[in-house]
Amino acid sequence: MSPDLDAAMGRALELAAAAEGWGDTPIGAVVLGPDGTVLAEAANEREKRSDPTAHAEVRALRAAAQAHGDGWRLSGCTLVVTLEPCTMCAGASVLSRVDHIVFGAEDPKAGAAGSLWDVVRDRRLNHRPQVTGGVRAEECGALLRAFFRRQRGL
């Protein structure tokens, strides 16, 4: 794994931990530009904003599109996220034309980058980003498991 991806996942983990502070599921996302620099970053804010679409990935992709300077197209960019994207976020990644999706923990209940569905590699779509899963998966998964244990009072 490249140092850029490891550092980006470290930052995504920091963002995820911050989301827990305002009651959101701890998921963080970072978008790297073609040169590896951070274009945008975000954490889940569904609870904070009362917005079902305020997933970390969607928020980061929106901010990256503003920073990238090629309209809505994020060609050459990499989305780094602590949890495998859901169908909404996988679809947003495809539609934004990111080249690479890197995720930490798999999501067998809602993952759409290979676990439950494989939206990002569906041959019927006109864009298929490269996918790398399992980056710092244990750290990402541990953060989520601890959050849900606390939510359930376990």
Automatic annotation (TrEMBL):
<dbReference type="GO" id="GO:0052717">
    <property type="term" value="F:tRNA-specific adenosine-34 deaminase activity"/>
</dbReference>
<comment type="function">
    <text>Catalyzes the deamination of adenosine to inosine at the wobble position 34 of tRNA(Arg2).</text>
</comment>
<dbReference type="GO" id="GO:0008270">
    <property type="term" value="F:zinc ion binding"/>
</dbReference>
<keyword id="KW-0862">Zinc</keyword>
<feature type="binding site">
    <location>
        <position position="86"/>
    </location>
    <ligand>
        <name>Zn(2+)</name>
    </ligand>
</feature>
<dbReference type="InterPro" id="IPR016193">
    <property type="entry name" value="Cytidine_deaminase-like"/>
</dbReference>
<dbReference type="GO" id="GO:0002100">
    <property type="term" value="P:tRNA wobble adenosine to inosine editing"/>
</dbReference>
<dbReference type="InterPro" id="IPR028883">
    <property type="entry name" value="tRNA_aden_deaminase"/>
</dbReference>
<keyword id="KW-0819">tRNA processing</keyword>
<dbReference type="Pfam" id="PF00383">
    <property type="entry name" value="dCMP_cyt_deam_1"/>
</dbReference>
<keyword id="KW-0378">Hydrolase</keyword>
<feature type="binding site">
    <location>
        <position position="89"/>
    </location>
    <ligand>
        <name>Zn(2+)</name>
    </ligand>
</feature>
<comment type="similarity">
    <text>Belongs to the cytidine and deoxycytidylate deaminase family.</text>
</comment>
<feature type="domain" description="CMP/dCMP-type deaminase">
    <location>
        <begin position="3"/>
        <end position="116"/>
    </location>
</feature>
<dbReference type="InterPro" id="IPR002125">
    <property type="entry name" value="CMP_dCMP_dom"/>
</dbReference>
<comment type="subunit">
    <text>Homodimer.</text>
</comment>
<feature type="active site" description="Proton donor">
    <location>
        <position position="57"/>
    </location>
</feature>
<feature type="binding site">
    <location>
        <position position="55"/>
    </location>
    <ligand>
        <name>Zn(2+)</name>
    </ligand>
</feature>
<keyword id="KW-0479">Metal-binding</keyword>
<protein>
    <recommendedName>
        <fullName>tRNA-specific adenosine deaminase</fullName>
        <ecNumber>3.5.4.33</ecNumber>
    </recommendedName>
</protein>
